[in-house]
Design brief:
The protein has 494 residues and is mainly β. The chain contains 5 helices and 22 strands. Strand 14 and strand 15 form a beta hairpin.
Length: 494
């Protein structure tokens, strides 16, 4: 018989006795069940073997803690009691603990439990740092002048981890008073909440700008969340009342903005205005750098978004992105690239970005060797712009021996400028219109040497720069770039 024939299969099957056929069919129906039971048994044996090899955490104990409540520390833990030991979760817990203002250092150790196999305790030794600070301070920057301040901070109120801050700063630019309260765990999910009140008086925006008389009172509510140990976001809402007054030393550009926005009135020939702003703010920050003061590896980034909501009497938006990348060159040098771009514009019936939100170029944070780059107002002083582009390339090294921990010095190359792309009008000395829109050929550059000193009273930054392509303003002294080769900035706390 040819078993390749179609009917052969059926002939063979029909030759099996009926009772035997029923047994075969029953066996076929049971086989899948038996196979499933076998697989489940194998998996159970495997899990039991893995469980025997795993280490359980019985208890997590904190030592060295005198000023912080236990719950404040435990809510930062990613390794939990009664679970398998996870080295990655332990390291993440250490990072989160050291982010607390009350914790200077957290050291994690594993302690075997006597007479117990595969069971350990986790011992976390905490080095606390003072959380209450108060005193007076001061500072100086070439573009901001001298300042003095008084402050009180408590980063661990009653051991709860909540933070309160009161500060006041007075300088030749004006004065500011601020009070805030932060609850790092306003919600169980780890969302922080900050309530703040700010009162600010502005006489000048920088030491080089024309006079402005501004009063701002602001109340704000912010929520923050740590996405990872290296990334966080903040979302805020601010209600601000603003009053601007023009005087004899106020530029034509600022006077024009005051007369056209808010609720302007004219008194003795000088305009003034008042308006209310309702701002929505968003901030994202990422930081993988390996040191707070002198990093040599990693990336720091921040993105800030601000928009006045439609309920505001003055409407606008601003965007700012800031990034610095660090990496080691050889065994002694650290290279860094810093990029900054910012843009803002008016919305609705608002004629231009409020002048106190303009950005300025020139100085330690943008283009060293210059001051007051960008658009000039009717008095020949920097007005700032609604667009800022800047970049810095640095190569620094630590000083040898005993200076290594507090001093870095090296070389830099800077480039950048401020531009005006809105409807603000600018003129030269002869009354001709000057276009300050973006033009890559107008980027200013400088090169020089710099040093950073980490001192007990603050960080001092020194630089000596040579401007590479300063403009003479095409013979117009009011448009000429201002040079300042030596620049310094520092902050002081007593």
């Amino acid at each position: 018989m040819d078993y390749r024939e179609p009917d052969a299969y059926f002939i063979i099957e029909s030759s099996v006795p009926e009772c035997t056929g029923r047994r075969i069919r029953r066996l076929r129906s049971v086989l899948p069940v038996l196979l499933l039971l076998f697989l489940q048994l194998s998996a159970s044996v495997c899990d039991a073997q893995q469980s025997a090899d795993r280490i359980y955490v019985r208890r997590i104990e904190f030592r060295g803690v005198t000023r912080t409540n236990d719950e404040v520390l435990r809510r930062e833990l990613r390794q939990l009691e009664g679970t398998f030991l996870n080295p990655a979760a332990l390291e993440e817990s250490r990072i989160y603990l050291e982010r607390l203002p009350s914790v200077e250092r957290a050291a994690v150790a594993i302690a075997p439990v006597p007479d117990s196999e595969n069971v350990v305790d986790v011992i976390v030794t905490i080095t606390e740092e003072p959380t209450r600070r108060y005193g007076v301070g001061g500072g100086y920057a070439s573009s901001l002048g001298a300042s003095a301040n008084g402050y009180f901070d408590n980063d661990n109120l009653f051991g709860s981890g909540q933070q309160v801050s009161i500060a006041m700063d007075v300088s030749e630019l004006g004065s500011i008073a601020e009070a805030s309260h932060t609850n790092p765990f306003a919600f169980d999910a780890g969302v922080s909440r900050t309530i703040g009140l700010v009162s600010r008086h502005i006489d000048k925006l920088t030491t080089d700008t024309s006079s402005v008389d501004a009063e701002l009172v602001e109340g704000r509510l912010e929520y923050g969340y740590a996405l990872t140990p290296q990334q966080s976001v903040r979302l805020g809402l601010a209600l601000r009342s603003t009053a601007l007054d023009a005087g004899p030393d106020t530029s034509a550009q600022l006077t024009s903005w005051i007369a056209a926005n808010g609720e302007p009135v004219v008194t003795n020939g000088a305009p003034s205005t008042e308006f209310t702003e309702l701002d929505l703010t968003f901030r994202w920050r990422g930081d993988t750098s390996n040191h707070l003061s002198f990093p040599d590896e990693g990336l720091e980034q921040s993105l800030d978004v601000r928009a006045a909501l439609p309920a505001s009497e003055v409407e606008y938006f601003t965007l700012r992105y800031d990034a610095t990348r660090y990496w080691t060159v050889g065994s002694q040098w650290t290279a860094s690239v810093h990029g900054l771009t910012a843009f803002g514009d008016s919305l609705g019936d608002t004629t231009a970005l409020p002048p106190y939100l303009n950005w300025f170029a020139g100085g330690p944070s943008t283009v060293r060797g210059y001051r007051g780059l960008g658009p000039k107002d009717s008095l020949g002083n920097p007005y700032g712009g609604n667009l800022l582009v800047a970049g810095q390339l640095e190569l620094k090294t630590a000083w040898p021996r005993r200076w290594a921990s507090w001093m870095r010095s090296g070389f830099f190359l800077d480039a950048g400028n401020a531009y005006s792309t809105d409807d603000t009008a600018f003129f030269d000395a002869g009354g001709g219109v000057v276009d300050h829109g973006f033009d890559a050929s107008e980027l200013r550059a400088s090169a020089g040497i710099a040093a950073d000193l980490l001192l007990p009273f603050g960080t001092v930054r020194l630089s000596y720069a040579v401007p590479l392509n300063p403009s003479d303003g095409n013979g117009d002294a009011t448009l000429r770039d201002r040079e300042e080769r030596f620049q310094v900035s520092f902050g002081v706390e007593f």
